[in-house]
Amino acid sequence: QVQLVESGGGLVQAGGSLRLSCAASGRTFSIYTMGWFRQAPGKEREFVAAIRWSGGNTYYANSVKGRFTISRDNAENTVYLQMNTLKPEDTAVYYCAADRGAHGPYSREYDYWGQGTQVTLSS
Prior knowledge:
By secondary structure, this protein is mainly beta. It has strands at residues 2-7, 10-13, 18-26, 33-39, 46-52, 58-60, 68-73, 78-83, 92-99, 112-113, 117-122. It contains no helices and eleven strands. The protein is globular.
């Protein structure tokens, strides 16, 4: 099992920045991909960004490309999501997820999920 704990959410003004963190513990050696997803009220959970644990290839949703950056610290078993130029439509609960390799980076079928952290934009 892999446990994921997100942190860094909060209330931020439009145009501002926020950095989310996700600390992984447990069988972290099994992680192939780490990702961030988000779910806004009344909407389905959607892919935001992902990173290969080994190699560091990154993947982004078109809606965040150029504004968000995903990175990882393998030594600390932590993945980050730097969010810049935030918009009101970025308001959502952000979830960290880990996959053992059976699913593509854009899939919503990751193996492990965190509890989520709320990001709220004020206009």
